[in-house]
Amino acid sequence: MVWEKAADxxxxxxxxxxxxxxxxxxxxxxxxxxxxxxxxxxxxxxTKIKPRHLEAIEACDAPALPALxxxxxxxxxxxRFLGLDAEAITAQFKSDxxxxxxxxxxxxxxxxxxxxxxxxxxxxxxIVVILMFVAWIAYEVAGGRQPDDVIAxxxxxxxxxxxxxxxxxxAAEPSLEEPPQPVVAxxxxxxxxxxxxxxxxxxxxxxNRVVADPVVPDLSTDATPVDVSPVEETPNLLDAVxxxxxxxxxxxxxxxxxxxxxxxxxxSVRVPVIVEPKLIRSKAPRYPARCERRAAELETVxxxxxxxxxxxxxxxxxxxxxxxxxxxxxxxxxxxxxxEPETTNGAARLSTNRRxxxxxxx
Length: 362
Hints:
Structural class: alpha+beta
Distance between the termini: 11 Å
CATH architecture of the domain at 274-361: 2-Layer Sandwich
Strand order of the largest sheet: 1-13-8-9
CATH topology of the domain at 274-361: TolA/TonB C-terminal domain
Radius of gyration: 51 Å
Shape: elongated
Strand content: 15-25%
Order of helices and strands: EHHHHHHEEEEHEEEEHEEEE
Number of helices: 8
Number of strands: 13
């Protein structure tokens, strides 16, 4: 009896589905699995993922799945098995089971609480400073430093003594435009008065210094009247310094519009041109005689493989198989196939996760 043996080649990568708007990643995987004719048991055998986890992925049932990193890994393996875009599907799956709004709400509430606490601390510190300032003012006013307790300020370095010489003719008491100054007896019998510096006539803020009125000696006694010679006014160094200081001029450089001719042109975006690999030579698998006794009328083996830039197959591995006895014959046939390699902008590149189903007919 002669058995007719044949093998049909089915390439399921010819057309790939796109994720529809509003469709979950689980529903998309379920539709792709049904379109390929696989059951949960077939997928579980090829991917080593438990059927209950496959059902939970298709239903987007997060409580029925393990931790999120493991669940994402299952989705990626499931998508690659079906020949789909694994990265896009895993991203959609994450958004389906863990919306970003739930994750960001606690952080916003925590930030708002921190801001409120900072405002309260600043308010309390300001109130304490104000109370301390008021208490200090009250102490200065009511606590009462008596005038006798105030020590006269020492003369500034630039004050100059003025000598008063005695005169033989009687004269009235000296009349000065300046406030009375303390008179100190000199070693040679002469007297000299120490003039305090004249207040600055500039707009600068007054110095925070308490100066008591000098004690004026009683000149109405029998002391010899004195005549005051003209006094040369001491130049005020503070006025001279402030006069030399000029307010800096601040100029703002207003932005000027660049000429239209100098504006850079917008860069052009180049879209890469990708050409899928094309089968140019295939060899039908040989029906293994050792598998004939226990084989069904039709046995199928799905093989996954890569296409190298030279157009050869590599990394071939058996996926879903109705009879493992035929796996070796299928892999041997795939190793002899040749392709025009996948190209990107004309440059050959490695193409991964290609799939073909081989049929063994009695």
